[in-house]
């Protein structure tokens, strides 16, 4: 059997499906994009509001209180190093992306976990995926 028959059929089906999703789901994807972009912009604005040494001190204090003193010192020094190297804007942009992704993961994961805690069949479905 010629494998190109299968791949051509699959390619055509995939193109058709993605075209339909793009045409009919644009409003949903635009909404999701605007929410995520707004969250990212807000987090980035907050991170760029304070001078670099304030963010470095906050990171050092969080590292110290949540893990240990060495982690706090390393977190603070790493941020100071980024500022000294002239990479502060890029560092805050990356940190804003990480914080936004964490918020998204919490908003998706917590409700799914609650439902899985109450619905045994849903939990059995999720367990291999996790």
UniProtKB/TrEMBL annotation:
It is a multi-pass membrane protein. The keyword Thylakoid does not apply. The chain crosses the membrane at residues 43-62, 69-89, 95-119. One of its GO terms (cellular component) is ATP-binding cassette (ABC) transporter complex. It is found in: Cell membrane; Membrane. The keyword Cell membrane applies. Residues 91-130 form the ABC transmembrane type-1 domain. It comes from the Bacteria. Keywords: Cell membrane, Membrane, Transmembrane, Transmembrane helix, Transport. InterPro entries: MetI-like. GO terms for molecular function: amine transmembrane transporter activity; carnitine transmembrane transporter activity. One of its GO terms (biological process) is glycine betaine transport. This is ABC transporter, membrane spanning protein. It comes from Mesorhizobium amorphae CCNWGS0123.
């Amino acid at each position: 059997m010629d494998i190109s028959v299968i791949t051509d059929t699959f390619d055509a089906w995939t193109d058709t499906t993605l075209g339909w999703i793009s045409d009919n789901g644009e409003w949903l994807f635009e909404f999701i994009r605007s929410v995520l972009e707004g969250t990212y912009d807000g987090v980035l604005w907050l991170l760029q509001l304070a001078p670099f040494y304030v963010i470095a001190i906050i990171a050092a204090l969080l590292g110290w209180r949540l893990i240990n003193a060495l982690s706090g010192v390393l977190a603070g020094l790493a941020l100071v190093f980024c500022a000294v190297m002239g990479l502060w804007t890029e560092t805050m942009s990356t940190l804003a992306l990480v914080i936004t992704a964490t918020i998204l993961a919490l908003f998706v994961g917590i409700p799914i976990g609650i439902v899985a805690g109450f619905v045994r069949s849903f939990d059995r479905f999720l367990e291999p995926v996790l």
